[in-house]
Amino acid sequence: xxxxxxxxxxxxxxxxxxxxxxxxxxxxxxxxxxxxxxxxxxxxxxxxxxxxxxxxxxxxxxxxxxxxxxxxxxxxxxxxxxxxxxxxxxxxxxxxxxxxxxxxxxxxxxxxxxxxxxxxxxxxxxxxxxxxxxxxxxxxxxxxxxxxxxxxxxxxxxxxxxxxxxxxxxxxxxxxxxxxxxxxxxxxxxxxxxxxxxxxxxxxxxxxxxxxxxxxxxxxxxxxxxxxxxxx
Length: 232
Ligand code: C5P
Prior knowledge:
Blueprint: E1 4-8, H1 14-21, E2 30-34, H2 35-41, H3 44-51, E3 56-62, H4 66-76, E4 83-87, H5 91-102, E5 111-115, H6 123-130, H7 136-149, E6 154-156, H8 162-169, E7 174-177, H9 196-202, E8 206-209, H10 211-214, H11 219-230
Parallel strand pairs: 1-2, 1-8, 2-3, 3-4, 4-5, 5-6, 6-7, 7-8
The structure holds cytidine-5'-monophosphate.
């Protein structure tokens, strides 16, 4: 599986996305569509971006009862997307139902990855509010193992956890990692961050980068710099 940089297109409408993507005249970056854009524009935004030739990671983080997730995934299986995600906290029956729903009649399906613990949740809050009193790393590794047992393709995690996930779940099990910055970038609200070169060294398969590309004066050059350091 080749390494790639996924640009988080965290824009609020189609015009902003179209304006941003039109700057890329030579390469066709892999694009992440999140809840904000998808709920604003609906499935049309997927048709629009895929018609321009981009791969799409649809980041909707489904988490509901297995029957509902199975049916929702069946709908998403009809979209021209390459990757979609769910919360591992939905447990194995929900993850298995998601896989079933997403699988098309011909047996093909987009990649399915699970969010382990959101990077916005710290160990203290996890303990106080979700009543999980294990160390964060142990929780993330356990969720990764459950996702693998449920037949998923990988997890969304911190790049700092990528190596351990691969040691536990195998090299083929994908690690999709946000929280990547150049040392000279503003880290924004990301806390567990690393550089693209370090993410590569730790074995991340895909890095998800938003603001360091979308807010740069020259987004195409910023993207190329990420590609050079991570996938080059
Ligand atoms: O702008 P930035 O590079 O921080 O964007 C990272 C992207 O990855 C955002 O779309 C954010 O929602 C997403 N993400 C994250 N941490 C997670 C899961 C998703 O930063 N644990």
